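To illustrate the input format used throughout this study, we show a single complete record. The first block contains the structure-token representation of the backbone; no residue identities are included at this stage. The design step must infer an amino acid for every position from geometry alone.
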């Protein structure tokens, strides 16, 4: 099998022959190269039989296992006069706590991954050079609204 490869059409044809229990006389009309086929078909046939055996062993081991069932409680019909409703204040409190935790987590992660310089001292410490000038922040955005 080493070094031999089949084209897709020949591989499909060979697989179909395996599924119908391959016999050499069945392949007379096929144009598959004999050296390639001799290594390929038994190999594929072996793998298919090995998979079938593994499935059968798994099914056998599952069938042998003892299953024990215990009734925990008897089934009852729900009371129509007392429908189940969500407890609004608990759902609101849990939602608020989860939202607060997500917001605080996002703030810490955003700060951790923010590598911008915020002060002149940070720039001087990082570059070991003095800052010659800076642009004043006017507190406006790029678009001036009238």
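Output of the design step:
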């Amino acid at each position: 099998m080493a070094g031999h490869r089949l084209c897709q059409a020949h591989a499909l044809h060979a697989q179909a022959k395996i599924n119908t229990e391959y016999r050499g006389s069945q392949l007379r009309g096929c144009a598959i190269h004999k050296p390639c086929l001799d290594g390929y078909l038994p190999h594929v046939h072996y793998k298919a039989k090995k998979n079938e055996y593994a499935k059968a062993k798994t099914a056998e081991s599952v069938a042998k296992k003892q299953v024990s069932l215990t009734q925990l409680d008897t089934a009852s019909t729900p009371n129509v006069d007392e429908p189940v409703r969500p407890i609004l204040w608990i759902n609101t409190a849990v939602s608020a706590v989860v939202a607060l935790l997500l917001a605080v987590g996002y703030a810490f992660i955003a700060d951790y991954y923010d590598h911008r310089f915020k002060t002149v001292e940070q720039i001087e410490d990082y570059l070991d050079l003095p800052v010659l000038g800076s642009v004043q922040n006017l507190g406006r955005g790029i678009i001036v609204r009238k």
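Structural context for interpreting the output: The chain has a mean pLDDT of 77. The radius of gyration is 37 Å.
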